[in-house]
Amino acid sequence: MKVCIAEKPSVAREIASVLGATTKRDGYFEGNGYAVTYTFGHLCTLYEPVDYKPYWKSWDLNNLPMLPEKFKVKVANNDGIKKQFKIVKSLFDKADVVINCGDAGQEGELIQRWVINEAKYKGKVERLWISSLTTEAIKEGFKNLKPAENYDNLYYAGFSRSIGDWLLGINATRLYTVKHGGYKQVLSVGRVQTPTLAMLVNRFKEIENFKPQPYWELQTLYRETLFSYEEGRFLKMEDGEILANKVKEDEFEIVSITKKKGTEYAPKLFDLTGLQVYCNTKFGFSADDTLKIAQKLYEKKVVTYPRVDTTFLPNDVYPKVHGILSKLTDYAKLTAPLLDKKIKKSSKVFNDKKVTDHHAIIPTGMQTHLQYNEQQVYDIIVKRFIAVFYDDCKVSNTTVIGKAAEVNFKTTGKEILSKGWRVIFESEKSNKKEDALLPTFTQGEKGPHEPSFLEKQTKPPNQFTEASLLRAMETAGKQVDDDELRDLMKENGIGRPSTRANIIETLFRRKYIKRNKKQILPTVTGIQLIDTIKNELLKSAELTGTWEKQLKDIEKGEISASAFIKGMKRMVDALVYEVRSEQVQTRISAVNNKPSGASKTKSKSKAKSKTATLVGSACPKCNAGQLIKGKSAYGCSHYGKTCDFTLPFSFSNKKISEKQFIRLITKGSTVNLKGFKIEGQTQEGLLRFDEAFKLKFEPKKTAAKPIAPKAGDPCPKCKKGTLLKGKTAFGCSQYKSGCDYRIAF
Prior knowledge:
Elements: E1 2-6, H1 9-19, E2 23-25, E3 28-31, E4 34-38, E5 44-46, H2 49-52, E6 73-75, H3 79-93, E7 97-101, H4 106-118, E8 124-127, H5 135-143, E9 146-147, H6 152-180, H7 193-208, E10 214-222, E11 225-229, H8 237-248, E12 252-264, H9 272-283, H10 287-299, H11 318-327, H12 332-339, H13 372-387, E13 393-404, E14 407-418, E15 446-447, E16 450-457, H14 466-474, H15 483-489, H16 497-509, E17 513-516, E18 519-522, H17 524-532, H18 536-539, H19 541-556, H20 561-580, H21 597-609, E19 627-629, E20 633-636, E21 646-648, E22 650-651, E23 654-655, H22 658-667, E24 673-678, E25 681-689, E26 695-699, E27 723-725, E28 729-732, E29 742-744
Parallel strand pairs: 1-4, 1-7, 7-8
Antiparallel strand pairs: 2-3, 3-4, 5-6, 8-9, 10-11, 10-16, 11-14, 12-13, 12-15, 13-14, 17-18, 19-20, 20-21, 22-23, 24-25, 25-26, 27-28, 28-29
């Protein structure tokens, strides 16, 4: 029997209907030699800290950093998930071959691999890799199943991403919460969310601290057309006033008219970020709303896979374009001019080098009834697709130079000579101000004009909207407007296209950011958190972008997963060392999350009445007996029968208080205590239980700072070059030969 495993029940249903597995069973579909089962997203997850060591359950600085030697995976602790996993495992046990039909991306690969591994399946695995859920695409995918090993690096990249997020997210969150958190305030810190929040806070402060600077503009109105002083603005009023008074006395003369023909190309096809930016700007949809709508459109088979980061199509899609366009009958008026002739093939649309696992989001040609919001998103995807096959828009750009009293002025305008692709979007209102159409001027003509000399002020940058924040995440905070340059920077963006919406939603959920109409602003708590984090690397969009590049390199097989994980562990270790020694000035508490005076008194008296005692508490070793107090030790009431647990009153010549023993049992360790005599020397340290629940001494940690790289060290990436010291970072001497190793100071 062939067992297919998809990521969702709805996807499994589509695949099952194509394969002829039409009998519905509990947790799968069956028929025609196939069983098609499914997950509900993540059935498996990484171990929690407590799964590695019981005392890691406690949020305690002494337990940090938590750096498991080997990361393990488990089935999520949920009855519905456990039931489905059992069904999947029973099918795997009978399978001749398993076909991984997970979403064709890094996350989809990770979800299914974890399930296959946890089910202990050792047989043959094949991979279905498709970009749409149409019957044609599914059939073609099953004809071209790939060996699972082809996607090993994709899995390693996904696993490394999860481990990186676990290492930094869990350690840093506990570290800052215990060190700086106020009343019931968890301070969530993450590999991607913290640099994103830092960008918002930095922009907010930049605007708050902005001091407007005055400047002056000299303009003149001639034949209802505004001309501006050719050399720009004046920073000193006196300089401009002299010219303003001068030009008043003279007529305005047209000196030159230059017309230059130009070409405007159709807007690019959508990647996910581009679609989210467009829908936020045009329709006010959040990034998360757009992703959910795009996913629904994919599951309804009307568009291709949406979680993509390319705006190009591979060459093998070109032969299918005519068929897709001819099926879009609702857009027949727009497609008719294309279907009568050979369809244009442009390198701005088709480029195999710019396509990895998936291509840009395009319609499949299938049409169905859609809800209003879905129709809006579908409509723009279809129109972009149709537009790229239309002729380019031809324009004439006109520059007119005029003068008065030998002072030159300039104006520009644009004339559309041939609309081309613009006819597709004529019904849409554009926010973009087009260059004005100019009157017909003649060189040498003269006439009266109305000069003006105006004082203006510089303006601060705009607050982020969800659209501009997505673009900033895509380019690691750098301001990039050019599409070509933006494409080059995507490798170093913050997060993945599929996760950026979730990161923004997480910041809303944690109350670190809030909406003000279209603007996204940091809250007081969000600003306090970024101010509290002194470690610049944690807030660095550039560093996070570098991590993202490394994860892509793992996907390509260019660096190993272990190298990335070791780097993350080193950073976490150094971070814990640094933050533990910080002085705490203020505790961060969420707004409206502070207890009133009355409830404080109440909680204090309640706490006093509930002071924990050692005697009578459950034995930590057997959990069956209770602790009793003897002459020289506490011990289990089952001592001498089924349990040998004891807690001596003193250890290595040091008396241990009942309070410290309670802490040891509840939190996994005592605090650091002075006065232990170990091998004749007085030492400071803490007590833990070993595996047999006997007391063991652990000397106080004096973590050494990680060894900083220095000029002349061998490059850890290419092993050929040596490190050179730049202004802000060390880099490899082989950078001209292609080694991009770089480590910021």
